[in-house]
User: What shape does this take?
Amino acid sequence: MIKNISNLGDAAIYCDFGSEVNKEINHEVIKYFKTLTSKNINGITNLAPSYNKLIITFDLDVINYKELVEKIINLKADEINETASKKKIIPICIDEEFALDIERVSKNTNLNIKEIYKHILNKDFYCYMTGFVAGMPFLGDTNKNIRLKRLETPRVKVPKGSVGITEQFCNIYTYESPGGWNIIGNTPLKVFDKNKEENPILIKPGDSVQFYEITKNEFYKIKE
Amino acid sequence: MSIEVIRPGINTTFQDRGRSNLYHLGIPFSGAMDTRNLLITNKLVGNDKNDAVIEFALQGPKLKVKQNNINCVVTGNVSFTFKKNSKIYNGECYKTFDLNNNDEIDIISTNNSMYGYFSISGGFKIEKKWNSYSTHLRSKVGPNKGDKIVENDILQLNKNVKPIIKKSIDYSNSKIEFIRVIKGTNFDYFSKESQKSFFESQYQVTNLTDRMGMRLDGNKLNNIKSENIKSEGLIKGVIQVPPDGKPIIMLSDHGTIGGYPKIGVIISADYDKIVQLPPMSKIKFKMIDVTSAEKLFKLYSMETKNILNQI
Assistant: This one.
């Protein structure tokens, strides 16, 4: 349920579903996002769902804030068709070549490397949202014992495919980019593929994700 | 039928009116930073309002045309020359001119502004990606493989089927004293003094400005609540304040998710103007409400239509 609707500037609606980050609230956001997408309301130009907010931008030449709020306020969100949310199995290589911050994670959590990966590999994660850069999935929640802050000095270049953790979240860098998450592995899969016209992202909000370990050899084989 | 790129200029890309409905994948609108100049450019060369133009920042490209009867135009506040039959002429913005095989155009610089535009009658032979000709460099989406135009690129042109009509308009980009802002969703994260000083003190555009965002320098804004929010969507025009207290304005190529408090949002009517401010420019913000912002946008929109109707 939307708790509060306000304006974000003069050409966007800010729907607040709550302040906490959890699956239940996020499920509501996604439900609302999917409903609005299917309704195809004239004037809406973009929808940005996140943990617990949904931002709707519109074309001010077509509709204004008040008019669009009236159109969406009584909209009943459709129940999500459960088959639409899928389980994604993602191979990762945790060789030291890729697990750039594993020693830092080990030091700061007082866990040995094996114990850390017990909390990462073969565990179910939930995709809350995608974005920041194209296709980057924000997954959660990680076990309380491996929750860390971001690096104090972000890396200038995080390699593409890197799997990082921070706070209760885990993500995958879909491009080589600057970033401050603690990198613990790398996936050879294309998590964002612009050549897939209809379906460029591998992991969608609402999907569940599981990582499994692969060797370096397997990593390069898949990469080919 | 092509144009050779002798010098690419800075951040030279194909842009149109932007790419919608992909925020949820992490892809922003992009598109020409200054929409009004995009529309004027297309109208002057007789192209559709949704056609692509070439956008450049501060320094433009030097190009050699490989075709006769190319009708082109440069818009913005831009100094350029063109070489026709080995003679060099000073160019005039907002006025179409024609070039023949092996003639050159040298777009030297934008003056007291950031972005300028170039296009030709018939347009460029490029393909749409997700319903848009806009280039988003960060995700490498758009024409030219999502990349900047670089030296030695050959830009293919469409065959111009319409008769060429010389067109010009007397137009100059209006100066602004104030950038008008609507309070953001985290306005109350800042101390009363900071809320006041945000609208009273002067800010300066720093060198850290590009299509993604514009960092400002000025009075440090004191956050009394929390330096971070739970990451959420962003839109262009949002003013975020990171822990250092210096505002950052999100522009057309912004990251789609951010975790800094939003102190305000630039109104739609002022967006074309703020993007044109080069580093070192001084700006002041003025607070207004949604209803006034809507009225100002209507006026701005009407003004744009009037300009286009004169062409």
